[in-house]
């Protein structure tokens, strides 16, 4: 299926790629009668770049009302991701399960969307402290992203590795957790210098170094996370500042 792109949508995409996120938001907001694709892109911008989960949720809900065919699966998956971010894990599981059902009953499976569903369900299990199930789902998602999803997306692979690191840390397997978190941060460093996803990975890596008693490496990670974020209100920046403050208290 071929989609036409309006001038305003193209401008919003260009602004996003340039890192002009607030201008991109205003451009998306000005589009009259946006389709599901546009609303989902708008919602992803709000969630991934600006950390505005309530507004992202509203975008994806509007998209679901207009979604058709494959757009419906993608929208359900995005709704699950936002609900996970809002710590509304039962709602997240509902949307991921609906998407999985459609994918499993379809003749042609989209490995990219399926991998997102698997990761989302892993996050639900992790939030419920069901660590074995969480690890199983994230391993399946990682394998799919590394072997089946084309073209390869290192941002998505890094997300799986970061989540796996968190799960392994809670299982007490600090060595494997550190390997996953280190690989995620290194992969993202090669992709970008000022992306919130790199900041999140660095916060996770710093927390692992701190757990292992290496406050020097932990501080380096937290300070690098701060440097990634130009938006002073972003929640990942707050997390990094809180992590540094805790380190300062421990070292007094």
UniProtKB/TrEMBL annotation:
Record keywords: Repeat, TPR repeat
Gene3D superfamilies xrefs: Tetratricopeptide repeat domain (1.25.40.10)
Biological source species: Rotaria magnacalcarata
Membrane-spanning ranges: none
Pfam families (UniProt xref): TPR_12
PROSITE patterns (UniProt xref): TPR
TPR repeats: from-to residues: 73-106
Alphabetized InterPro entries for the sequence: TPR-like_helical_dom_sf, TPR_rpt
Protein name (database record): Uncharacterized protein
Keyword Repeat: yes
